[in-house]
Amino acid sequence: MISTASRNGSSATAVAKCTASTTRCLMTMAVGVIVGIVVGVVVPSAPVVLSFQSPRPTSSSSLSSSSRSRSRSVHSLSSARDERMRGGDAASSSYDWIRRDFEVRTKNGNDDVTAASSSSSSSSVTTAGEVPPRGVGGMGTRAPSTVLIYDTTLRDGTQMESISVSCDDKIKITRRLSKFDIDYIEAGWPGSNPKDEEYFRRARAELDETTFSRLVAFGSTRRKGVRACDDVQIRTLVDSGAPTVCIVAKAHLWQVTDILRADPNENLDMIRDSVSYLTSQGRKVMVDLEHYFDGHAFDANYAYRCCEAALDGGASVLVMCDTNGGSMPWDVERIVAETISRFGNEDDDDNNNNDRETTTTTTTFGIHCHNDCGLAVANSLTAVRAGVGLVQGTINGIGERTGNADLCSIIPSLALHCDVRDMSCKDNLSDVTSLSRFIDETLNRAPNTAAPYVGASAFAHKGGLHVSAIERSPDSYQHIDPSRVGNRLRVLISELSGRQNILGKMRSLDLEDHHDDAVLNERALVILDRVKRLESMGYTFEGADASVELMILHSTMGYCPPFQVLDYTAQVYDTNVDSASRVMSKMERRDVDMASSLKKDPSLARATVKVRVLDGALPHDGPYLDRLEVSEGDGPVDALANALKKALSPSHPELENLQLVDYKVRILDPESATRAATRVMIEFKDVDTGRKWTTVSVDRNIISASLNALVDGFEYALRDIVAACVVDFE
Ligand SMILES: CC(=O)SCCNC(=O)CCNC(=O)[C@H](O)C(C)(C)COP(=O)(O)OP(=O)(O)OC[C@H]1O[C@@H](n2cnc3c(N)ncnc32)[C@H](O)[C@@H]1OP(=O)(O)O
Ligand SMILES: CC(C)C(=O)C(=O)O
């Protein structure tokens, strides 16, 4: 009932004989290897057999002996080209990305970016080797020297679409924020739901006198017509046990009359009574003045009366909120400055009392911004410049609608670009990237790779001109040293790369097997040319570091891949055929197929893989063995991966730790329908070390593209062995 066919690759004979001296090169003959594949989908009366021949793409093929000699003969290239290559002054550049990072700054005895910029800002002339000033710095005279950070990830953050956090995760996040020395953690609204009530019960034990952060319970002013002491919601705030409570109060006259539908004076009473009752219960009270900026524009006097009511009640922090996120930075600056000059303590140097332990006397002003115009961070920093001493925000900027001000941008900006001297979490700045990723991970969100400071792309350099410049000084295209926020510089390889992208990558891999710059340059140009050509065919290398690394390894003298696929077959069986040959309806058939694929029936696909594999220890003149294995799987790619692992593991048991974690397929020219070129990207993980890497391959045959991406992934897993080969060679 099942019929299949296989076809041996012609390469088997091409590499059949090898002596010890030729062993080194044997595995490098992958170019031109023809592998055969058969995909057979069998139905009872009419077996269908599709067969393809697909050469292994040359992206990860090794440098053949002829191409090696090409690499050796680069000195003979035209002198004009040599000149161009040498123009890069490669001999004098160390290109040691991380270690040399900001060497210039430390050489000048100045390790502080802010100080560097402000201290030298009067001079516009720099001498060679000096990092020029950024031009502006500091926050002006009204900015306080101390800024308190108030995190509302667990309250406003959870008001974002698609975010929901369990009580356990809330506790986990609280611990992590406290470890970062966040001053205040607003963790929920105990009057809102049982989960938040439970959270406060449990969190009391977590955040006690010994922990740095102060826990805040959030709520609102009392309801109309109810005494504060009788208001159920206010009661839950007290019962939460949180030492600090923050209540939202309407500060916009129109919102009061038309939305809350309260008398303006009653709203003032609601604010005053609520604050006063909560302070009488021993709580430190903060008031979030909702719609403050719009309310100020509508009727500044009423907005001020709301401030007065809160102060009368004994509030210690007044937070001005840009609730709808529509305020411009200049309006924020003006309104904050006007408010602080009206209510701030003129005798206080900072116009603010930013002592987080204070419960009465002078007032701290705070800011809470939403990101509806993409200005939440700018508005928050502007408010600090105008005098506020407490900034509310969330990790990664999550929050209602388009989110809140992102503390992962605000904290580093205050620490590195402004004159804020005193901020509790400043000493933990290098932990901010890890904090950001922890929150995304816990909330099950895909990280924003372009996030300032903490995103994976925040210090990733792609354009050739940029990379060539940062080779001379990372300052040329970076506003800070990434390590200050726990991030790292990355160089991406793509069709927009220049020679320096490749050279940088080669050096970062420590594969400088040749000390002649001209040879390295030429090799970089060959690889660059190849990258550009392959990307024009649909490859994309910037997300496939492992394939890039292998391409470089394959161009390195002395490199021999640890194995080579000689041929393979992949077969797909249809075991759901009704033996009585009953004709099934389309729907019926689909149900049967779906049921069996969900059962994960491993006999649905079968693959064979024949490999020539380096067996034994280094140096690499150990024996090469041919091994043929067959495996089944949930589909042809799964079966191929299993067969490959089975064939290689006896020689390389470390491959048992290899796990496929992602498999992405993209059709590149959909107009070609089923003939379309397919890009396959596979992500692998070493379960032992947790390390991940991604490979890419493109082919019109999806099975072939998949196999090639698999081969790269397996070869990459063995790169330490092959890297040792390279060093051994010279
Ligand atoms: C700008 C902000 O982000 S504020 C925080 C917003 N966050 C949330 O709303 C999340 C948690 N919310 C909840 O769980 C619920 O909405 C609750 C428990 C607070 C209230 O639920 P309910 O009692 O069913 O009321 P509902 O949500 O339908 O309406 C809100 C009520 O609060 C009133 N209200 C709104 N703001 C205030 C305020 N500052 N002070 C007093 N009452 C207020 C509204 O007028 C309305 O009362 P009304 O219908 O009598 O006029
Ligand atoms: C409750 C306050 C702080 C709020 O979320 C807002 O006004 O946006």
From TrEMBL:
Keyword Amino-acid biosynthesis carried by entry: yes
Sorted UniProt keywords: Amino-acid biosynthesis, Branched-chain amino acid biosynthesis, Isoleucine biosynthesis, Membrane, Transferase, Transmembrane, Transmembrane helix
Pfam families: HCS_D2, HMGL-like, LeuA_dimer
Residue span(s) of domain Pyruvate carboxyltransferase: 147-433
Superkingdom of source: Eukaryota
Similarity comment: family membership: Belongs to the alpha-IPM synthase/homocitrate synthase family.
UniProt protein name: (R)-citramalate synthase
